[in-house]
């Protein structure tokens, strides 16, 4: 079986889309599936990660952004029009038959997906904002919402299989194993974990640190996790040292 992923990562997009796709790709590769990532925007450390894990990668050329008037607020993330991206992606997959195409990108919708129908057999969309229509065979939204069962009504084809809720969460094996060992928390909170993704371009990490300092809970242990590319890395490391918080930068297992 051959499975392709269309996903990007950057300081603006973050790395969350890429990491959850990488988790799915790892599971597929363990089952003998050939995987190829198709991306236009990818930081160097993620390229190295894909190479180390033995995944193929097709890089789409970056060209000046085209007119995106009337598009979604995420359209600028793509860097080109959906039509151009569909053409480029089709070309990147033209060398063989693809059983599945996994799409994880807020800037792509049903128009792009329809254009890829001739290049792949089936399409799986990973989404969590439910703000646009999709032409897909399966849609995965691993988050919990009060309106979970109706969020995609009218936004996907009648034949589309919906995988909704945390039971379908894309978790790496080490998290699954740890869940079996962790008991439900009870009593007073003694430890806090801060993590806002691999990039955190808005520095939510810094604001969380400030809030905990202002709350001033005696004896509270705080673990702060940031990526090596965090834009405020030095500031966060300095604040953690000042307040006695533990700062973990690109910890072991991050790329697993």
Task: Describe the protein in words.
It is built from 7 helices and 10 strands. The chain has 256 residues and is of the alpha/beta class. It folds into 2 domains: 2-171, Rossmann fold, CATH 3.40.50; 183-249. Strands 3-2-1-4-5-6-7 form a 7-stranded parallel beta sheet, covered by helices on one side. Helix 2 (44-52) links the parallel strand 2 and strand 3. Helix 6 runs parallel beside helix 7 (233-243). It starts with a strand and ends in a 7-residue tail after the last strand. The model has no long low-confidence stretch (mean pLDDT 90).
Largest sheet: 7 strands, parallel
The count of DSSP E runs of length 2 or more, i.e. the number of strands, is 10
- Based on helices, strands and strand pairing, what is the structural class? alpha/beta
Distance between the termini: 23 Å
The first-level CATH class name of the largest domain: Alpha Beta
**What's the average pLDDT?**
90
Beta percentage is 15-25%
Main-sheet strand order equals 3-2-1-4-5-6-7
**Second CATH tier, the architecture of the largest domain:** 3-Layer(aba) Sandwich
> Treating each run of at least 4 consecutive H or I residues as one helix, how many helices?
7
Provide the domain count.
2
The CATH topology assignment of the largest domain is Rossmann fold
Unreliable spans are none
Radius of gyration: 20 Å
User: Which bin fits the share of residues in helices?
Assistant: 25-40%
Order of helices and strands: EHEHEHEHEEEHEHEHE
Overall, the morphology is globular
């Amino acid at each position: 079986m051959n499975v392709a992923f269309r996903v990007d990562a950057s300081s603006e997009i973050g790395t969350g889309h890429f990491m959850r796709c990488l988790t799915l790709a790892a599971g597929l590769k363990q089952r003998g599936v050939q995987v190829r990532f198709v991306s236009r925007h990818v930081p160097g450390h993620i390229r190295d990660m894909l190479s180390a894990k033995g995944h193929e990668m097709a890089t789409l050329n970056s060209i000046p952004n085209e007119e995106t008037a009337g598009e979604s607020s995420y359209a600028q993330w793509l860097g080109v029009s959906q039509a151009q991206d569909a053409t480029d992606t089709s070309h990147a997959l033209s060398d063989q038959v693809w059983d599945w195409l996994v799409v994880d990108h807020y800037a792509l919708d049903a128009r792009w997906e329809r254009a890829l129908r001739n290049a792949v057999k089936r399409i799986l969309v990973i989404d969590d904002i439910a703000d646009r229509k999709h032409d897909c065979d399966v849609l995965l939204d691993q988050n919990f919402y009060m309106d979970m069962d109706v969020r995609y009504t009218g936004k996907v084809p009648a034949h589309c299989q919906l995988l909704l809720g945390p039971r379908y969460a894309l978790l790496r094996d080490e998290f699954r194993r740890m869940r079996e060992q962790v008991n439900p928390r009870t009593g007073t909170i003694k430890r806090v974990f801060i993590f806002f993704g691999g990039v955190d371009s808005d520095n939510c990490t810094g604001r969380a640190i400030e809030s905990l300092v202002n709350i001033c809970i005696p004896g509270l242990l705080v673990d702060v996790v940031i990526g090596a590319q965090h834009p405020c890395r030095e500031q966060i490391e300095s604040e953690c040292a000042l307040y006695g918080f533990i700062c973990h930068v690109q910890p072991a297992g991050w790329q697993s």
